[in-house]
Design brief:
This protein is mainly α and 425 residues long. The chain has helices at 11-38, 41-72, 75-98, 102-125, 127-130, 136-162, 168-186, 205-218, 220-250, 255-279, 288-307, 319-322, 326-356, 362-389, 394-415.
């Protein structure tokens, strides 16, 4: 699997995704810490959940356009132009951080979401252009690993940058340098050619999105694989939106405690992704997906049980004091279980979708799945945000994961897609 990291057909895409995900999370977590520093606990929880939803919203609106662009034009060239445009969003985020302006940082986050939504069909659609079907689980695991290890570093950097209201100099240097490096990595992605040179791009984003979802629905294997991938992202964004207020406001941790827990979550997703690729070492197999979903629900149930009745703790002075509490270790284990099981769910599901998709429309299939992902994530964040605003506790929100995961696992057992065929000998 790691041999792909030394090959040009994969390595530049890996580093482009790694650096882009770093900046996304560097900005998002810097914003989260500023929100928690400036707003009351109840208002901060709602704004944090909203931040996650706003980043995801462009995926719902623009993934269809991104898929059409990726099939119509050379995917590598589109990626390079998108990463060039991302430099402007980086500059806006630097201004917002210098001014300590939450609205400007929200706007920069939306712009990063726009670029990411257009890049999404490329980063997953390009893999089957350069990899064999048997290599797709490993390629997806590495891309997922790149994403969540970048979350680790971006989270730690965001916590450091925003600590004590934040020094703008490290944020400005880090954001600018990583954006330039990301653009440089994109220039090395090998060309793919035009998969559908006669495709006419639909200017109406709502019509193109509807058409893509209709095409996805028409193929039962692709639709069901897309739903499975979307469930992973919905569970993930809910867990990530609950984590900062849980650690800081419920358990009394500081910014570094939040960063450490987020980093643990990211590493666990990477570990789960590698485990998912291991289960598919002899071919893409989906049998592990429903069991992984049950494990996510188990982690949510135990997390709720641990948080139930816990009174908000006073702020701790060090990581040692934070982890002196036994509940901190149990919550860390539950979050790791949720994250690792999510990785096991995601890798075979996405690999199956890539393998089933026709080459001439693969990027549009990935785009349709991204729309489905964003719909699940936006719905999840909106519902949980409304429930939190109405007074739902963190324990109650965690408990909701259990019945949702149980129903999802039963659906996978009964209606899951078929395993795709292997590469011809």
């Amino acid at each position: 699997m790691l041999a792909l990291l030394t090959q040009r057909r994969f390595a530049p895409l890996f580093w482009t995704q790694f650096l882009a995900a770093f900046n996304d999370n560097f900005l998002k977590n810097s914003l989260i810490f500023l929100i928690m520093a400036k707003l009351s606990a109840g208002e901060a929880q709602t704004r944090i959940t909203l931040a996650g939803g706003l980043f995801i919203l462009p995926f719902f609106l623009l993934s269809g356009l991104g898929g059409e662009m990726a099939d119509r034009y050379d995917k590598a060239k589109v990626a390079q132009r998108l990463k060039l445009s991302e430099l402007a969003a980086s500059a806006l985020s630097v201004v917002g951080f210098i001014e300590q302006s939450i609205p400007l940082l929200f706007l920069a986050l939306v712009l990063f979401g726009v670029v990411s939504s257009l890049f999404g069909p490329i980063k997953y659609g390009i893999l089957p252009d350069h990899l064999l079907k048997a290599e797709l689980p490993a390629g997806n695991a590495l891309i997922e690993g790149a994403t969540f290890i970048a979350i680790l570093f971006g989270t730690l950097a965001g916590g450091l940058a925003a600590r004590n209201s934040g020094d703008p100099a490290p944020f400005a240097v880090g954001m600018t340098a990583i954006s330039l490096a990301c653009y440089g990595a994109s220039l090395l992605i090998p060309p793919t050619g035009e998969a559908a040179p006669d495709l006419v791009i639909e200017a109406n984003i709502f019509r193109s999105t509807g058409r893509l979802l209709g095409d996805l629905w028409a193929d039962s294997n692709l639709w069901r694989a897309g739903v499975m991938v979307s469930l992973f992202w919905m569970f993930g964004i809910i867990a990530l939106s609950l984590l900062p207020p849980m650690v800081k406001m419920q358990m009394g941790g500081d910014e570094m405690a939040v960063s450490l827990m987020l980093a643990l979550f990211a590493v666990s997703v990477g570990f789960g992704s590698a485990l998912g690729a291991f289960f598919c070492r002899d071919g893409i197999k989906l049998a592990s997906a429903p069991f992984a979903t049950l494990a996510i629900g188990l982690g949510g149930a135990d997390l709720a049980f641990t948080l139930h009745g816990m009174t908000p703790a006073v702020a701790t002075k060090s990581l040692g004091e934070f982890f002196d509490a036994s509940a901190a270790w149990r919550i860390a284990f539950d979050l790791s279980l949720i994250a690792a099981a999510g990785g096991v769910l995601a890798v075979p599901s996405f690999s199956a979708a890539q393998a089933w998709a026709p080459a001439s429309s693969r990027a549009r299939v990935i785009a349709a799945i991204n729309v489905l992902n964003s719909a699940f994530m936006v719905a999840g964040t909106v519902v949980f945000s409304m429930l939190q605003a109405a007074g739902l506790s963190l324990a109650g929100a965690s408990a909701l994961l259990a019945p949702i995961c149980l129903a999802s696992a039963i659906w996978m057992f009964r209606y899951g897609p078929q395993d795709p065929p292997r590469d011809p000998a």
